């Protein structure tokens, strides 16, 4: 299959293009579309066959459900059930953060095919801020089910060129609207009632909406077992026929310990501690600002700063996946070392991605 690339300027009037893409999707096509977080691989969420083609193109296991992208918050009630006790919290969250990089996991309506949610009783939804994803969803009139447009387990694409590298020949069309403005996948929350009977949220994935922002609205519960134990937990969950879900223990099936992985080994290292290189190994350093004691060692064949000189977390977030990808493609680097980042604000989400990228690399 030839993969066509159409480049657009999101500031132009793109209505005709949105209609054309929606028309293709109505016929079952899958299309890579930009969002403000990362590029997504979209299908009409109501077309189970098209959704199956998304899993196939990504080589994604069927147990890992997709996010539904809505044209507006008004669509939420069509796809999700909002209980009375959670309605105020959901309204607060959607008013403050939609359109934007926040995904809510709620009990699903029957119109959502099981393949979208991997058989779970809940559906993940968000209204993206990016004009193109939202414009196509509006033209389609249905939600767009879209995971990140990378092959399973790999680094998420923050540019159309990265999507091309991941999925060329496997999908018919990529809409290129330039680099993503957030650079990290959405924050995923499951609203719930906590043990004290108060509305709260389970934080299923760290993302651009940071814990500190959420805490101003409600209690944020961090599922303890996510991360290293998620894979084992998931297996158990599947064997038990989703008993975990029935008991109200929310897990995000796609949050496996090893994820966002470059093909080279990646290790995390403190920017202040010294580093002893092994002989005959060529190292590349992903540094926060490029000016730490670690960065000033002379053992780096390649040094890529995330926020050169400035140390701005937002800039580092936008560049993180692109820099990981560039380092992975560097022919003169065998092993990637990544500096640990400050764990505050966006730093939580970036450290989450780096830890998963490092998981499985043995030092
Ligand atoms: O920013 C984003 O969220 C991007 C863009 C394209 O919107 N999408 C994205 O999708 O990152 P994906 O498929 O790469 O990650 C979605 C995550 C997975 O970890 C999946 O397990 C989780 O959302 N998820 C989806 N539905 C869920 C559900 N019903 N319950 C719990 N977790 C769910
Ligand atoms: Mg993904």
Spell out the blueprint of helices and strands.
Blueprint lengths: L3 E4 L7 H12 L4 E3 L6 E5 L3 H11 L8 E3 L6 H4 L4 H14 L4 E6 L6 H4 L4 E5 L4 H10 L3 E2 L14 H8 L5 E4 L10 E7 L5 E7 L5 H5 L3 E3 L8 H10 L3 H4 L19 E4 L13 E5 L12 E6 L7 H17 L5 E5 L6 H13 L5
Parallel strand pairs: 1-8, 2-8, 4-6, 5-9, 10-11, 12-15, 13-14, 13-15
Antiparallel strand pairs: 2-3, 3-7, 4-7, 5-6, 9-10
Helix pairs in contact: 1-6
Structural features, described:
With 363 residues, the protein is an alpha/beta fold. It has 12 helices and 15 strands. α8 (211-215) links the parallel β10 (199-205) and β11. The chain is globular, with a radius of gyration of 20 Å. The protein starts with a strand and ends in a 5-residue tail after the last helix. Residues 225-248 have low confidence and may be disordered. Bound molecules: threonylcarbamoyladenylate and magnesium ion (MG). Threonylcarbamoyladenylate (TXA) binds at residues 35, 37-38, 40, 64-67, 101, 103, 105, 117, 120, 122-124, 146-148, 185-186, 188, 204, 252-255. Threonylcarbamoyladenylate is lined by residues 35, 37-38, 40, 64-67, 101, 103, 105, 117, 120, 122-124, 146-148, 185-186, 188, 204, 252-255.
């Amino acid at each position: 299959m030839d993969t066509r690339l159409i480049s657009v300027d999101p500031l132009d009037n793109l209505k005709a293009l949105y209609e054309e893409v929606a028309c293709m999707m109505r016929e079952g096509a899958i299309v890579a579309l930009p969002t403000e977080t990362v590029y997504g691989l979209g299908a009409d969420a109501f077309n189970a066959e098209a959704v199956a083609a998304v899993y196939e193109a990504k080589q994604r296991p069927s147990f890992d459900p997709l996010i539904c992208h809505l044209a507006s918050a008004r669509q939420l009630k069509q796809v999700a059930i909002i209980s009375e006790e959670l309605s105020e919290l959901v309204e607060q969250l959607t008013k403050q953060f939609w359109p934007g990089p926040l995904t809510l996991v709620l009990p699903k309506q029957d119109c959502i095919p099981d393949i979208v949610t991997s058989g779970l009783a809940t559906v993940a939804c968000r209204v993206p801020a990016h004009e193109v994803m939202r414009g196509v969803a509006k033209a389609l009139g249905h939600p767009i089910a879209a995971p990140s447009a990378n092959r399973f387990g790999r680094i998420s694409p923050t540019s159309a060129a990265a999507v091309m590298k991941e999925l060329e020949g496997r999908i018919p069309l990529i809409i290129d609207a330039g680099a993503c403005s957030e650079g990290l996948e959405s924050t995923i929350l499951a609203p719930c009632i906590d043990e004290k009977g108060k509305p709260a949220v389970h934080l299923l994935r760290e993302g651009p909406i940071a814990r500190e922002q959420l805490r101003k609205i409600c209690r944020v519960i961090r599922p303890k077992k996510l991360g290293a134990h998620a894979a084992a937990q998931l297996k158990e969950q599947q064997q038990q026929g989703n008993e975990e879900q029935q008991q109200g223990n929310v897990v995000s099936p796609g949050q496996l310990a090893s994820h966002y992985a470059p093909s080279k080994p990646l290790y995390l290292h403190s920017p202040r501690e010294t580093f002893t290189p092994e002989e005959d190994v060529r190292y590349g350093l992903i540094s926060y600002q490029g000016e730490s004691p670690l960065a000033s060692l002379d053992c780096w064949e390649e040094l890529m700063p995330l926020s050169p000189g400035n140390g701005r977390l937002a800039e580092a977030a936008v560049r993180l996946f692109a820099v990981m990808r560039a380092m992975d493609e560097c022919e003169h680097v065998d092993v990637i070392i990544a500096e640990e980042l400050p764990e505050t604000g966006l730093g939580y989400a970036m450290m989450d991605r780096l830890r998963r990228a490092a998981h499985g690399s043995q030092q």
